[in-house]
Every structure is written in C-alpha cells, then in structure tokens.
Amino acid sequence: MTHALPGTPAADGFRMPGEFEPHAGCWMLWPERPDNWREAARPAQLAFAQVAAAIAQFEPVTVGVSAANYETARAVLSEPVRVIEMAHDDAWMRDVGPTCVVNGRGTVRGVDWHFNAWGGLDGGLYFPWDQDDLVARKVLEIERLDRYRAPMVNEGGAIHVDGEGTALVTEECLLNPNRNPRCERSDIERRLREYLGVSQIIWLGRGVVDDETGGHIDDLACFARPGVVCLTWTDSHRDPQYAISLDAFERLQEARDARGRRLKVVRLPMPGPLHMRAREAVGIVAREGTRPRRAGDRLAATYVNFYIANGGIVMPLLDARTDRVAAARLKRLFPGRRVVGVPSREILLGGGNIHCITQQIPSGTRSRSPSAR
Ligand code: KQY
Q: Please, what is the end-to-end C-alpha distance for the chain in angstroms?
C-alpha cells in the first residue's frame, strides 16, 4: 500500500514547471478500446507509435499497455521506447497521468488528481474509469516519486503553467459542475494555488468548439515560455470558434502574469474545420456507456495541442492547407528546438491530439520521503 503525502505542494515549496523546462522523460498509454478507436484501434496505434518515436529522438519515452496488447505494442513501438504492462481505460496520459511539481533543490513529486472521465455520469465519455484513476499513482510508483492526492477532479489537459507562478485555465472546464460540483471559482483557485504552486490564475472562457473534454485549455492555448502564449485562431467570422478565440485573445491582452508582465499572444491558425467521415465512423463499435462517435461530428482540431520535448516540438499534422503555416510559426516561436510533424488525424478521431496522449516527467532528483511509501 502506498500512501499519499500529507500537506500540499505549495506548502512544501513545490511548483509545477513549464513544459518547456527540462524533462527526464515522457509517458504515454496504448489506445485499445474499439468503442472509441476505429478498426480495433489499429490506425490509432500506428499514429501513437509515430508520436512515441518522434519524442524518443529527444527524451526517453515509456508506454503503458494492457497485458492483452503487450506483444502488439512491443512489435509496433520503436526499439528505444520502453513498454510496460499497465491497465487503463483509455489512452489519454495527459489527463490520467501525474502532474509533476519540483522544488528549489530539484526534487520531483507528483500530483494525482481525481479523474472522472471528463464529467462522470453527468456527460463523462465512458464508464467505468477506475483503471484510469489509478494510472498516475502507478506511474509515480514506477518513477519512484512521492505523490500528493489532490482533493479535486482535474485533468492535466485542463491546466497550463508558465513555471513562474501563472496558470492558464478555462471557465468552461474548471467551473463545470460535472467536475467539482460543490466548488466555487474561489475554491478552484485555492486548490490550483495549493497543488500547482501558482499565485496568478488567468481564466479564459470557452475552449475549442466541440471539444468533448468540455473546454480543455490544451486545445485552446498554451505557454511557449513565460510571457508568451500560443492561441488557436480562425479568421472566419462564420465559425463559432471565432468569437471564442477573440474573447480569449482579449482576456490575454488584459491579463498580467504572476510577475506582473503583459503577455505576447501568438495566433496559430486552425486546421479545417475538420469532421468525422462516414468511412471513419463505421469502424467504431458503439457501446452503451461510451459517448457515440458519428459521421459529420466536428473534430476539435488545433495545432496548439503540440508536445514540447527536450530540444524538440512534436506537432500534429492535420490539414495540408494549414500545416505549413503552423509549423513555420512554431519554428519561429521555438528557435532552439527542432519541429517534427506527425500525421495525427487518427488521434484526433479519438477526441484529442499529441499533447493529450503525452505527459512529461521533469528532470530532477527522486528523493522519496519515508512517510510516503
Ligand atoms: O487532454 C486532452 N485534451 C484529452 C482529450 C481526451 C479525449 C477523450 N476522448
């Protein structure tokens, strides 16, 4: 039995680092469920394997896979990728994995949020989710990192930080009663301060149109570095995304970060709009208790859902009309990193993208506290 640490990261001197700070490695899960991924998840598995191989050029990657799929995953994933047997309900490591925090001495610990499949029985995407809720704990145990069990429902894709005291979140997601029904905005802010070690929370309104997570920030906006935010953007006034992105842009222009700086906002064009095709929908085996996927559904396509690796950016390729512009913007934004594009429509068909399927472990030391085994 492993116990969680008492107290909170902030009280113990810990903060969540920005994704652009150095990593010890990256964790992913293997897509398997036929009610979410078409054709028994084979096309998605190939896309996940490409993402893993791209990240493995920059840092160590570990993929958790069920016992039943171990051999397939090992055969498909490239040699440098470590494959570990781990039960899970679906494959969104960003949301079910730990959110790591560090202190001034370089000690790394993990925050283990409560997970309810993006809304539990009130709009959640599948039932049950008990195995997903254990993933963060298992990752931390394998990494030998101490764990805080945060007393709130949250997902890694619902938060971005600049590592210098600022968090970026959306009202649509964090204030949705299907996550923490008894919490007001002030309660959520207090928990984010305690568990991320932040002092300033910037609230955007809604997330990307038809994002089934209920407005995750990691589809809408992220920090490229302290003081610089990337924002999903469209110039099409007819698209409902236009008003959402404009509102986010205005709020970001008004905001100050924890150090009192104004933010520079870099707009990344949206692909599409993209929709699920009839031939893609037929390969999904509908099941009661899982959100159905239908031909014509709008996909939450965005280039903001990229992963920042040590020395690299692994970005989604989604639409030949916009991929090049987005890649050029990311190259300018991250001059010290190599931008690698991975075709990721198959991941998008499952409801997320490259950022959603990855979770970084920051560099640091792993001193475990004897009280928290
Ligand atoms: O972090 C994310 N944005 C996760 C997307 C989850 C989609 C579930 N089908």
A: 8
Distance CA 78, CA 72 (A): 12
Distance 188 CA to ligand 1 centre (A): 21
pLDDT of residue 367: 65
- CA–centroid distance, 78 to ligand 1, in Å, is 24
Q: In angstroms, rounded to a whole number, what is the distance separating the alpha carbons of residues 219 and 211?
A: 8
Q: Which atom of ligand 1 is nearest to the CA of 352?
A: 5
Q: What is the pLDDT of residue 1?
A: 38
C-alpha dihedral sign at 37, 177, 133, 57: positive
Strands 359-362 and 23-29: antiparallel
DSSP string, 113-153: EE--TTTTTTT-S-S--HHHHHHHHHHHHHHT-EEEEEEEE
Residue 221 pLDDT > 60, yes or no?
A: yes
Q: How far apart are CA 188 and CA 180, in angstroms?
A: 8
Say how far apart CA 103 and CA 15 lie, in whole Å.
6
Ligand 1 neighbours by CB, cut-off 6 Å: 92, 94-95, 125, 157, 212-213, 216, 218-219, 350-352, 356
Domains of the chain are: 23-367 (3.75.10.10)
Helix (H) or strand (E) holding 25: strand 23-29
Q: Which of 315, 321, 309 is nearest to 343 (CA)?
A: 315
Would the pLDDT of 298 be above 60?
Answer: yes
Q: How far is the CA of 91 from the centre of ligand 1 (A)?
A: 9
Residue 21, both tokens:
């700070």
Predicted local distance difference test score (pLDDT) of residue 22:
98
